[in-house]
Amino acid sequence: MRLIGMLDSPYVRRVAISFDFLALPFVHEPVSVFSTFERFQSINPVVKAPSLVCGNGDVLMDSSLILQYAEAALTDGDSLWSREAATLQREMRAVSLALAACDKSVQIVYERKLRPASAQYEPWMDRVRGQMLAAYTALDAELGAHAEVYDAPRSQACITAAVVWQFTQSMLAAMVPTENFPNIEELSMRMEETPAFLRYPPTGPGV
User: Where are the beta strands (DSSP E) in the chain?
Assistant: First the structure.
Protein backbone atom coordinates (compact mmCIF):
# COMPACT_ATOMS: atom_id res chain seq x y z
CA MET A 1 0.00 0.00 0.00
CA ARG A 2 1.08 3.55 -0.68
CA LEU A 3 -0.01 6.38 1.61
CA ILE A 4 0.09 9.66 -0.30
CA GLY A 5 0.29 13.01 1.47
CA MET A 6 2.41 15.17 3.73
CA LEU A 7 2.70 14.41 7.44
CA ASP A 8 1.96 18.01 8.39
CA SER A 9 -1.61 17.13 7.40
CA PRO A 10 -3.26 15.74 10.55
CA TYR A 11 -5.37 13.41 8.43
CA VAL A 12 -2.33 11.88 6.74
CA ARG A 13 -0.39 11.64 9.98
CA ARG A 14 -3.35 10.02 11.70
CA VAL A 15 -3.40 7.24 9.12
CA ALA A 16 0.37 6.70 9.15
CA ILE A 17 0.53 6.43 12.94
CA SER A 18 -2.52 4.18 13.08
CA PHE A 19 -1.00 1.86 10.47
CA ASP A 20 2.16 1.76 12.58
CA PHE A 21 0.23 0.78 15.71
CA LEU A 22 -1.56 -1.90 13.67
CA ALA A 23 1.75 -3.17 12.23
CA LEU A 24 0.44 -2.76 8.69
CA PRO A 25 3.13 -2.50 6.01
CA PHE A 26 2.90 0.57 3.79
CA VAL A 27 5.04 3.04 1.92
CA HIS A 28 4.61 6.70 2.74
CA GLU A 29 5.03 9.07 -0.21
CA PRO A 30 5.26 12.72 0.97
CA VAL A 31 3.48 14.43 -1.91
CA SER A 32 1.98 17.87 -1.29
CA VAL A 33 -1.43 18.98 -2.55
CA PHE A 34 0.05 22.47 -2.84
CA SER A 35 3.70 22.48 -3.90
CA THR A 36 3.52 19.28 -5.97
CA PHE A 37 -0.09 19.47 -7.15
CA GLU A 38 0.58 17.96 -10.59
CA ARG A 39 2.42 14.97 -9.12
CA PHE A 40 -0.43 14.35 -6.68
CA GLN A 41 -2.91 14.72 -9.53
CA SER A 42 -1.10 12.03 -11.50
CA ILE A 43 -1.65 9.62 -8.60
CA ASN A 44 -5.19 10.70 -7.70
CA PRO A 45 -6.98 13.20 -9.98
CA VAL A 46 -9.12 14.30 -7.02
CA VAL A 47 -5.94 15.52 -5.24
CA LYS A 48 -7.15 14.72 -1.75
CA ALA A 49 -4.88 13.83 1.15
CA PRO A 50 -4.62 11.26 2.44
CA SER A 51 -4.93 9.00 -0.56
CA LEU A 52 -4.28 5.29 -0.11
CA VAL A 53 -3.25 3.37 -3.20
CA CYS A 54 -4.23 -0.25 -2.62
CA GLY A 55 -2.44 -3.26 -4.01
CA ASN A 56 -4.82 -3.51 -6.97
CA GLY A 57 -4.38 0.18 -7.81
CA ASP A 58 -7.67 1.40 -6.36
CA VAL A 59 -7.37 4.72 -4.52
CA LEU A 60 -9.20 5.28 -1.24
CA MET A 61 -9.72 8.69 0.38
CA ASP A 62 -10.76 10.14 3.76
CA SER A 63 -8.75 9.14 6.81
CA SER A 64 -11.67 7.57 8.68
CA LEU A 65 -12.72 5.44 5.71
CA ILE A 66 -9.13 4.39 5.04
CA LEU A 67 -8.76 3.27 8.65
CA GLN A 68 -12.11 1.52 8.62
CA TYR A 69 -11.08 -0.40 5.51
CA ALA A 70 -7.69 -1.29 6.97
CA GLU A 71 -9.12 -2.73 10.18
CA ALA A 72 -11.91 -4.59 8.37
CA ALA A 73 -9.80 -6.07 5.58
CA LEU A 74 -6.16 -6.18 6.61
CA THR A 75 -5.68 -6.81 10.33
CA ASP A 76 -7.24 -10.24 11.06
CA GLY A 77 -9.44 -8.64 13.68
CA ASP A 78 -6.89 -6.35 15.31
CA SER A 79 -8.34 -2.95 16.16
CA LEU A 80 -7.52 0.38 17.78
CA TRP A 81 -11.09 0.58 19.08
CA SER A 82 -12.52 -1.01 22.23
CA ARG A 83 -14.70 -4.11 21.93
CA GLU A 84 -16.78 -2.99 24.91
CA ALA A 85 -19.83 -0.93 23.97
CA ALA A 86 -19.69 1.75 26.66
CA THR A 87 -15.97 2.34 26.16
CA LEU A 88 -16.40 2.38 22.39
CA GLN A 89 -19.03 5.09 22.79
CA ARG A 90 -16.60 7.19 24.81
CA GLU A 91 -13.84 6.69 22.24
CA MET A 92 -16.09 7.60 19.34
CA ARG A 93 -17.22 10.72 21.15
CA ALA A 94 -13.58 11.76 21.62
CA VAL A 95 -12.71 11.08 17.99
CA SER A 96 -15.78 12.94 16.72
CA LEU A 97 -14.87 15.97 18.83
CA ALA A 98 -11.23 15.84 17.74
CA LEU A 99 -12.12 15.60 14.06
CA ALA A 100 -14.61 18.44 14.41
CA ALA A 101 -11.89 20.59 15.97
CA CYS A 102 -9.54 19.53 13.19
CA ASP A 103 -11.98 20.44 10.42
CA LYS A 104 -12.53 23.88 11.92
CA SER A 105 -8.80 24.39 12.45
CA VAL A 106 -8.16 23.59 8.78
CA GLN A 107 -10.90 26.02 7.72
CA ILE A 108 -9.27 28.80 9.72
CA VAL A 109 -5.80 28.02 8.38
CA TYR A 110 -7.00 27.98 4.77
CA GLU A 111 -8.91 31.21 5.26
CA ARG A 112 -5.93 32.98 6.80
CA LYS A 113 -3.25 31.55 4.52
CA LEU A 114 -4.95 31.26 1.14
CA ARG A 115 -7.65 33.93 0.97
CA PRO A 116 -6.65 37.60 0.60
CA ALA A 117 -7.26 39.60 3.76
CA SER A 118 -9.67 41.86 1.91
CA ALA A 119 -11.88 38.87 1.10
CA GLN A 120 -11.96 37.35 4.59
CA TYR A 121 -15.34 37.54 6.31
CA GLU A 122 -14.81 37.99 10.05
CA PRO A 123 -18.33 37.02 11.22
CA TRP A 124 -17.83 33.67 9.53
CA MET A 125 -14.37 33.30 11.04
CA ASP A 126 -15.78 34.08 14.50
CA ARG A 127 -18.32 31.32 14.02
CA VAL A 128 -15.74 28.77 12.91
CA ARG A 129 -13.39 29.74 15.72
CA GLY A 130 -16.24 29.31 18.22
CA GLN A 131 -16.98 25.84 16.83
CA MET A 132 -13.31 24.85 17.12
CA LEU A 133 -13.10 26.05 20.72
CA ALA A 134 -16.37 24.33 21.63
CA ALA A 135 -15.04 21.05 20.26
CA TYR A 136 -11.77 21.34 22.16
CA THR A 137 -13.56 22.37 25.37
CA ALA A 138 -15.79 19.31 25.16
CA LEU A 139 -12.84 17.07 24.28
CA ASP A 140 -10.81 18.32 27.24
CA ALA A 141 -13.76 17.65 29.54
CA GLU A 142 -14.19 14.16 28.05
CA LEU A 143 -10.53 13.30 28.63
CA GLY A 144 -10.68 14.62 32.19
CA ALA A 145 -13.90 12.85 33.14
CA HIS A 146 -12.94 9.48 31.69
CA ALA A 147 -9.17 9.40 32.06
CA GLU A 148 -9.15 5.62 32.45
CA VAL A 149 -10.48 5.23 28.89
CA TYR A 150 -7.62 7.26 27.44
CA ASP A 151 -4.77 5.82 29.46
CA ALA A 152 -3.32 3.40 26.90
CA PRO A 153 -1.68 4.86 23.77
CA ARG A 154 -2.85 2.06 21.45
CA SER A 155 -6.21 3.70 20.93
CA GLN A 156 -7.71 5.50 17.96
CA ALA A 157 -9.16 8.09 20.31
CA CYS A 158 -5.74 8.88 21.79
CA ILE A 159 -4.04 8.89 18.40
CA THR A 160 -6.58 11.20 16.77
CA ALA A 161 -6.85 13.61 19.69
CA ALA A 162 -3.07 13.97 19.95
CA VAL A 163 -2.48 14.37 16.21
CA VAL A 164 -5.21 16.98 15.88
CA TRP A 165 -4.02 18.93 18.91
CA GLN A 166 -0.47 19.08 17.58
CA PHE A 167 -1.74 20.44 14.27
CA THR A 168 -3.82 23.18 15.88
CA GLN A 169 -1.01 24.12 18.21
CA SER A 170 1.44 24.34 15.32
CA MET A 171 -0.84 26.62 13.30
CA LEU A 172 -3.19 28.42 15.70
CA ALA A 173 -1.56 28.32 19.14
CA ALA A 174 -2.71 31.80 20.10
CA MET A 175 -6.35 30.77 19.68
CA VAL A 176 -6.07 27.66 21.88
CA PRO A 177 -3.76 28.37 24.87
CA THR A 178 -2.48 25.10 26.30
CA GLU A 179 -3.32 26.16 29.86
CA ASN A 180 -7.02 26.17 28.94
CA PHE A 181 -6.91 22.56 27.76
CA PRO A 182 -4.67 20.69 30.25
CA ASN A 183 -6.05 17.22 29.60
CA ILE A 184 -5.52 17.42 25.84
CA GLU A 185 -2.06 18.88 26.33
CA GLU A 186 -1.09 16.06 28.71
CA LEU A 187 -2.36 13.42 26.30
CA SER A 188 -0.55 15.06 23.40
CA MET A 189 2.77 15.21 25.22
CA ARG A 190 2.45 11.57 26.23
CA MET A 191 1.52 10.36 22.74
CA GLU A 192 4.20 12.40 20.97
CA GLU A 193 6.83 10.40 22.90
CA THR A 194 5.60 7.02 21.64
CA PRO A 195 7.66 5.26 18.94
CA ALA A 196 4.88 5.49 16.33
CA PHE A 197 4.51 9.25 16.76
CA LEU A 198 8.28 9.74 16.68
CA ARG A 199 8.53 7.72 13.46
CA TYR A 200 6.00 10.00 11.75
CA PRO A 201 6.70 13.59 12.82
CA PRO A 202 4.50 16.37 11.39
CA THR A 203 6.94 17.51 8.73
CA GLY A 204 5.93 19.23 5.52
CA PRO A 205 5.81 22.50 3.63
CA GLY A 206 2.65 23.78 5.29
CA VAL A 207 -0.05 25.75 3.54
Answer: 2-4, 27-29, 51-53, 59-61
